[in-house]
Design a protein that fits this description.
With 407 residues, this protein is of the alpha/beta class. Helices cover 43% and strands 17% of the residues.
Length: 407
């Protein structure tokens, strides 16, 4: 069924929300295409955040710019109900390959859902926050905003994420890996590479040994663990023994204990390389830790019911996939939903030039608007289910109480 058919077949609040998404379709479509055509990196999303804030303001939201001291973050609020709902909006791109993670679609889906919900916020008894969260790809915008209090009082949080074709729309049982990113710096001693190489301490050799050690370690780690690395610096000319080498690396695992164990083993590889070459080693974190993603069962059930109406595949997930998101940090403290948005015909991996192109196709925008309706329906259904509503309000209260006790 297409969106017009869904609107015609729906009743009550569902019909009003589907109609609301359709009313904003042209403007949100233009917004999402503009974000795709003008990719901006983490913390640099000036054009995107400004445009999104403007359309939300047009839709009746009160907009606060620069939330948590982040210039490209914002909080748009409408309604005054006891239950506070957050729709997370992402809009940063990847270096060199643009919107190869489809954040233009994430933004469009959340914005369209927010605009459709806005006129019904008070009747649903909700305070609706559309929160612009920069730097998801690198920088952990949500983690920074969460720590700063931007999500205080929120009872549930939602967003969607595009993926390849053929991945189930059922979020139950799915997750995302914890990821930590680091910079290892080896410091050696410069010397003339021909006249006195024996007087130098080669930091580039330490970088090579660390890569070899990590490569061998990969055989001995569980199949769902991930290590990635690249050499950012290792000398500049051939006739000087490199005195500095920098290796950027990351570790991923589906639970925090597994992640911590993996990180220890990877650090050992770097320390061994430093010992073997006589270099000094320092390792520093470059971004906030992204925590594993938890999907709320009630929200997942509402989303899946909506996707069944749209005729999507909602079979149970075959297993855990890869990837990480700072939405995981939100989900650890606030009931959350982060389902997958399967783009028809996208038979290529995300984070590729080909996927970036597919994120700007009619098929992608069609499912973006279907997702917007499903997000709006999920929000309304959760807000009007007495038991769930009370649980989400209580979750917000417990989160605030826990924060007060640790302050």
């Amino acid at each position: 069924m297409n969106l017009n058919d869904i609107t015609a077949a729906s009743t009550g609040v569902h019909a009003a929300l589907a109609t609301g998404v359709e009313q904003w379709r042209e403007k949100v479509h233009t917004l999402a295409r503009d974000i795709h055509s003008n990719p901006e990196l983490s913390f640099e999303e000036v054009r995107a955040s400004t445009a999104i804030a403007a359309i939300l303001r047009e839709g009746g939201f009160e907009v606060e710019l620069g939330t948590s001291g982040l210039p490209t973050a914002f909080t748009a609020t409408v309604g005054s109900g006891e239950l506070t709902v957050a729709l997370c909006i992402e809009y940063d791109a990847l270096p060199g390959i643009g919107h190869a993670c489809g954040h233009n679609l994430i933004a469009g889906a959340s914005v369209a859902a927010a605009l459709a919900l806005a006129p019904l916020a008070d009747s649903l008894g909700i305070t609706l926050k559309a929160i612009g969260t920069p730097a998801e790809e690198h920088g952990g915008g949500k983690a920074l905003m969460l720590a700063d209090g931007a999500f205080d009082g929120v009872g549930l949080s939602l967003m969607v994420h595009p993926v390849q074709d053929g991945i189930t729309y059922n979020p139950a049982g799915t997750s995302a890996q914890a990821v930590g990113r680091y910079r290892a710096t080896f410091t050696g001693k410069a010397a003339h590479a021909a006249a006195a190489p024996h007087l130098g301490v080669n930091a580039a050799d330490a970088a090579v040994l660390s890569q070899v050690a990590v490569g061998l370690l990969r055989q001995q780690i569980p199949g769902d663990h991930r290590i990635a690395m690249y050499v950012a610096e290792a000398g500049h000319v051939t006739n000087i023994i490199p005195e500095k080498a920098v290796v950027e690396f990351e570790c991923r695992a589906f639970t925090l204990p597994e992640y911590e164990s993996l990180l220890v083993r990877v650090r050992n590889c770097f320390e061994g390389a430093a010992l073997a070459t006589g270099t000094a080693l320092s390792i520093e974190s470059t971004e906030p830790l992204y925590e594993p993603l938890l999907q709320d069962d009630d929200l997942a059930a509402h989303w899946t019911a909506a996707m069944d109406v749209f005729g999507k595949d909602t079979s149970p997930a075959a297993g855990l996939g890869g990837g990480s998101t700072d939405m995981g940090n939100i989900s650890q403290v606030i009931p959350s939903l982060h389902p997958w948005l399967s783009i028809p015909g996208a038979d290529v991996p995300i984070h590729s030039h080909a996927f970036a192109a597919l994120a700007d196709t009619p098929a992608a925008y069609d499912v973006m608007f279907e997702a917007a309706v499903a997000l709006a329906w999920t929000t309304a259904d959760a807000a009007t289910n007495p038991a769930q509503r009370n649980r989400f309000i209580a979750a917000a209260y417990r989160t605030a109480l826990s924060k007060d006790q640790t302050a």
